[in-house]
Write a structure and sequence with these properties.
alpha+beta; 2 domains; 4-stranded antiparallel sheet; 37% helix; 7 strands; 4 helices; PH-domain like
Length: 154
């Protein structure tokens, strides 16, 4: 944690979404159909990509979220030892998903990745006020990719 930290908290890196047996059956059906298509058309590279993608998806979705340590300083937000300065972001917003609160930091770079930081509700007012003193607040909505990821329960 940073020496000059003002606010510290811990939160999971993402919302863990339980998957039913139907989710795995659906994945198996889609995978089998894509593999059949690749074999039928003799697209061996596509077949390899499908196998690697499904294995990667299964590994990624089966791992539990890590507990991350966050610190707010005058310079920026630290996730562990990784400091993200406030001047990298043009604004922030707040999302509430399934009673999990998060700050969404919008980058200045046109194609930069948004940074999503979950926080406990008990610390929320203090954290939001801190960001509000440094960045303008704007309404944030889930984009198409975020909605797809949530729908697929990834």
């Amino acid at each position: 944690m940073a020496k000059d930290s003002i606010i510290n908290w811990q939160a999971k890196e993402f919302i863990e979404r339980k998957k039913s047996a139907g989710w795995y059956v659906g994945l198996a059906i889609v995978t089998a159909a894509l593999i059949a298509l690749a074999v039928l058309l003799q697209y061996w590279t596509f077949l390899a990509v499908i196998v690697v993608a499904v294995i990667t998806l299964l590994i990624y979705t089966s791992r539990p979220p890590r507990m991350l340590h966050y610190s707010l300083t005058e310079d920026g937000i630290s996730e562990g030892n990784n400091l993200q300065p406030f001047d990298k972001f043009k604004s922030f917003g707040i999302l509430n998903e399934e009673n999990h609160y998060s700050i969404v930091l919008i980058p200045k770079q046109r194609f930069g990745m948004r940074m999503v930081v979950f926080f406990p509700e008990t610390e929320g007012e203090q954290i939001v006020d801190f960001f509000g003193e440094r960045l303008p607040m704007e309404e944030v909505k889930l984009d198409l990719l975020d909605k797809l990821v949530r729908w697929l329960r990834i």
